[in-house]
């Protein structure tokens, strides 16, 4: 099986990239784990019932046009396909319907988006603790809302958006416990003039806050020292705010500390990454076509740095132009003209980011978890155990794997990687850039051994001939 | 260029063999510097399958492997750390009568050399030791007193103990030119020059960079043996298991995960320090594992990896003095089975450095075997 451009992920970036490239005549294959286009942000966008669509708001509904354009573009589409490896020759190994196959690509757009930042704090691994993102997916995909009042805790626009959406769905949260420290707003205010250039965001944010206030959702600001109480299940969230210790009972607590690029695929491909102080995470290095340090590997959407859904679609289109240019499939001058317009729009849409990054920077508590807090939940490694290994001489995340098995479980470090890099950097007094991140090895997600044993790499002659016909 | 360090001995390469040689030299009172281009245990030493195996060794390797095994069984006395060492039988499974006959011959050969550690297993005994083994397996060959360990922890423990004894490690420091000034070797690196009376080359896949400068090029091939690890499974296997007719090395760790290796190779790029896995090959590894242990058909692969290793054309290492220069000793090219030899060969290297000679029978491992004449029949005998 072959294609010109393999796009991985069907969120706004992937959809836009696949659409643009297919319209230009490239043989495109879009691989996505979900059964339908939309990614996390536009989850279930093609099938969502009208009332739920209204409840989720116009920003969500905007995704329908992207999905429709993709459907009309002629791009190949592989839903329910998990890409578990991309090698340096750009062979894409994927699992679909319980069978693993290989697609040889000439260029790749990684559009695997963002994941929620890990939030290690006491009790975060108890049953009954989830994330704001996970709750929002249940709402989008199944129309499910918590039966019992949820406590939303942490920081970031998603926390507020979810609170508002739940409120509109008649399942108002029991409380919002925000960890943004007092004084952060005035410190972030210097980014305000720039942020005003990005249309709509600030007005929407203020409207959200007003709606929550009207609905009477208790809002605790400046919370510190969060802890989830409970023996076998979450029972309450306790925290310090306004100078006193408080406790809110709930068996459902959703944590959130913003989102960060999902680095698994770009790390696997050994794209160069750089630490971003602003976003407090690693970002793949990309040029102004969103091409990474690895030739013909493009990174679009939030995977290239958090920019939101609008920017993701713009970046996706830009990455497609970059791929056209790389593959010699477009006239340079026309591509450059279209790209310049996209870059202008990106610049404008991204103007709100410095304000959001400064205001919603992750809380100090999760960046430096207490010694007895679990940091790697797969292998049950505490922050204290990690600090001890560093004191013994463990120089970085890859060695921590061998010392403690942290990052070696089924999640492949997705849920602990950043936290582990942060703790080691702090203990050694070195920048995160120097400490770096886990080396990521395939398969990216667990793969049944029997499926690997039957892996079809398309290496027999009949298969090959058939594929060539497909590509022609 | 600025002087980085001066010592009695400079070791090039911070893998297990470099760290072990450094530690043993330090135990003999020598001052030692180790120069490592990446970080200690970055390549094969840190990420190999961890087998601690006398079973199935090339006849020339048996004496040093037996010697090294003694050190493994009291490894904590040497490095103040148990290195995750677990004594366990190593078993080579015969899937056909022909394979069993070959193992029987092998057992006779080893006994004929005067060693008792390998014993032939009939089908009943095999099943007793490996209740989960497939029906078609007819017997095997076992070395009951072998085991396995955790590679990175082991190499790091050697480094840590060496450091405690005063060995200085220069990591992220790349050896460059090598010149001699009277009795002093001058090794330039990208961070300064190291001066020492004796040079020990433990450069693994990169060892020829030193050997070629000495005028005795060695055909080291960079290879990338691949491994897979599964999610945890209920306990079903106590031994480290290999197959006879096809590549497989297989063990269940105390936490239930299963590490599958056996020598199928990925792509190694020693220039960039990178390895690429070849899943077209690994699917064969997966098939073999499931055929030898049917329970594995329900396992889930969590991760695969490979580390860069140096392989010699005859699959046995280079150990011993340079044939062109005084005060240079080599230990490299362990061809994907050097982990078990680490403690023992380090001790032999220190003996060579300190006394100029060793009682260990290392003649078959001379680098001279690649320099035209002086072919050593023993070094190229077939391995079973």
From TrEMBL, chain A:
Keywords: Oxidoreductase. CDD domains: GlpA-like_Fer2_BFD-like. Residues 4-307 form the FAD/NAD(P)-binding domain. Residues 375-454 form the SoxA A3 domain. One of its GO terms (molecular function) is oxidoreductase activity. Pfam families: Pyr_redox_2, SO_alpha_A3. Gene3D superfamilies: BFD-like [2Fe-2S]-binding domain, FAD/NAD(P)-binding domain. This is NADPH-dependent 2,4-dienoyl-CoA reductase, sulfur reductase.
Automatic annotation (TrEMBL), chain B:
Residues 8-352 form the FAD dependent oxidoreductase domain. GO terms for molecular function: oxidoreductase activity. InterPro entries: FAD-dep_OxRdtase, FAD/NAD-bd_sf. The keyword Oxidoreductase applies. Pfam families: DAO (PF01266). Gene3D superfamilies: D-Amino Acid Oxidase, subunit A, domain 2, FAD/NAD(P)-binding domain. PANTHER family: FAD-DEPENDENT OXIDOREDUCTASE DOMAIN-CONTAINING PROTEIN 1 (PTHR13847:SF287), SARCOSINE DEHYDROGENASE-RELATED (PTHR13847). It comes from Tistlia consotensis USBA 355. This is Sarcosine oxidase subunit beta. Keywords: Oxidoreductase. GO terms for cellular component: cytoplasm.
């Amino acid at each position: 099986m072959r294609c010109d451009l393999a796009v991985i992920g069907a969120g706004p970036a992937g959809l836009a990239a696949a659409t643009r490239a297919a319209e230009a005549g490239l043989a495109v294959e879009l691989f996505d784990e979900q059964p339908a286009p939309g990614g996390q942000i536009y989850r279930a966008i093609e099938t969502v019932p009208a009332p739920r669509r209204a409840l989720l708001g116009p920003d969500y509904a905007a995704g329908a046009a992207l999905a429709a354009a993709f459907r009309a573009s002629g791009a190949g589409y592989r839903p329910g396909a998990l890409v578990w490896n991309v090698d340096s020759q750009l062979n894409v190994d994927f699992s679909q319907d319980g069978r693993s196959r290989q697609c040889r690509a000439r260029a790749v757009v990684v559009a695997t988006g963002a994941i929620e930042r890990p939030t290690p704090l006491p009790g975060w691994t108890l049953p009954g603790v989830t994330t704001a993102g996970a709750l929002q997916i249940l709402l989008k995909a199944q129309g499910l809302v918590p039966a019992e009042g949820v406590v939303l805790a942490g920081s970031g626009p998603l926390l507020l958006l979810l609170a508002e959406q739940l409120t509109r769905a008649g399942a108002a949260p029991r409380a919002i416990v925000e960890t943004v420290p007092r004084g952060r707003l005035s410190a972030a205010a210097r980014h305000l003039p720039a942020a005003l250039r990005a249309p709509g965001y600030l007005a929407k944010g203020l409207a959200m806050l007003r709606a929550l206030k009207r609905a009477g959702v208790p809002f605790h600001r400046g919370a510190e020292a969060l802890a989830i109480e409970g023996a076998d299940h979450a029972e309450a969230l306790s925290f310090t705010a306004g100078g006193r210790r408080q406790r809110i009972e709930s068996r459902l607590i959703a944590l959130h500390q913003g989102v960060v690029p999902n680095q698994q695929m770009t790390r696997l491909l050994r794209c160069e990454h750089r630490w971003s102080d602003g976003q407090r995470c690693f970002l793949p290095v990309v040029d102004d076509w969103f091409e990474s340090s690895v030739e013909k590997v493009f990174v679009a959407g939030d995977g290239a740095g958090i920019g939101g859904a609008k920017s993701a679609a713009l970046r996706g289109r830009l990455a497609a132009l970059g791929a056209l240019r790389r593959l010699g499939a477009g006239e340079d001058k026309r591509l450059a003209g279209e790209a310049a317009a996209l870059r202008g729009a990106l610049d404008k849409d991204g103007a709100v980011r410095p304000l959001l990054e400064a205001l919603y920077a992750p809380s100090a508590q999760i960046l430096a978890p207490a010694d007895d807090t679990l940091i790697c939940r797969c292998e049950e490694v505490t922050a204290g155990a990690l600090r001890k290994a560093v004191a013994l001489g463990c120089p970085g995340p890859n060695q921590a794997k061998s010392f403690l098995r942290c990052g070696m479980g089924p999640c492949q470090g997705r849920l602990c990687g950043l936290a582990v890099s942060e703790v080691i950097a702090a203990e050694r007094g070195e920048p995160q850039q120097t400490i770096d991140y886990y080396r990521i090895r395939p398969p990216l997600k667990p793969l049944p051994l029997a499926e690997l044993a039957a892996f079809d790499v398309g290496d027999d002659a009949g298969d090959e001939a058939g594929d060539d016909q497909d590509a022609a | 260029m600025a002087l980085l360090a001066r010592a009695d001995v400079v070791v090039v390469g911070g893998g297990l063999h470099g760290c072990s040689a450094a530690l043993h030299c330090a135990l003999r009172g020598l001052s030692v510097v180790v120069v490592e281009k990446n970080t200690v245990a970055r390549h094969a030493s840190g990420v190999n399958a961890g087998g601690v195996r006398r079973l199935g060794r090339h006849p020339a390797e048996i004496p040093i492997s037996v010697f090294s095994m003694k050190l493994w069984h009291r490894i904590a006395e040497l490095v103040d750390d148990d290195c995750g060492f677990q004594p366990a039988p190593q078993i080579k499974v015969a899937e056909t009568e022909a394979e069993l006959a070959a193992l029987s011959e092998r057992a006779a050969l080893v006994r004929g050399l005067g060693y008792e550690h390998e014993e032939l297993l009939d089908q009943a005994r095999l099943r007793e030791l490996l209740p989960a083994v497939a029906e078609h397996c007819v017997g095997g060959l076992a070395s009951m007193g072998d085991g396995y360990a955790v590679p990175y922890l082991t190499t790091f423990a050697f480094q840590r103990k060496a450091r405690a004894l005063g060995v200085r490690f220069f990591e992220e420091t790349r050896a460059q030119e090598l010149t001699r000034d009277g009795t002093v070797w001058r090794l330039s690196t990208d961070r300064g020059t190291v001066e020492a009376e004796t040079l020990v080359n433990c450069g693994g896949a990169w060892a020829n960079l030193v050997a070629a400068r000495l005028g005795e090029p060695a055909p080291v091939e960079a290879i990338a043996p691949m491994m897979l690890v599964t999610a945890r499974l209920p306990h079903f296997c106590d031994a480290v298991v290999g197959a006879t007719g096809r590549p497989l090395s297989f063990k269940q760790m105390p936490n239930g995960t299963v590490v599958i290796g056996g020598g199928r190779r990925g792509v190694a790029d020693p220039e960039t320090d990178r390895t690429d896995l070849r899943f077209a090959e690994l699917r064969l590894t997966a098939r073999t594992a499931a055929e030898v242990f049917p329970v594995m058909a329900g396992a889930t692969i969590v991760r695969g990896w490979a580390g860069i290793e140096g392989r010699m054309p005859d699959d046995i290492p280079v150990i011993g003095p340079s044939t062109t220069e005084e005060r240079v000793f080599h230990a490299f090219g362990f061809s994907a089975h050097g982990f078990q030899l680490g403690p023992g060969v380090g001790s032999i290297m220190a003996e060579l450095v300190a006394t100029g000679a060793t009682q260990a029978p290392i003649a078959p491992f001379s680098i001279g075997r690649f320099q035209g004449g002086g072919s050593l029949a023993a070094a190229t005998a077939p391995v079973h």
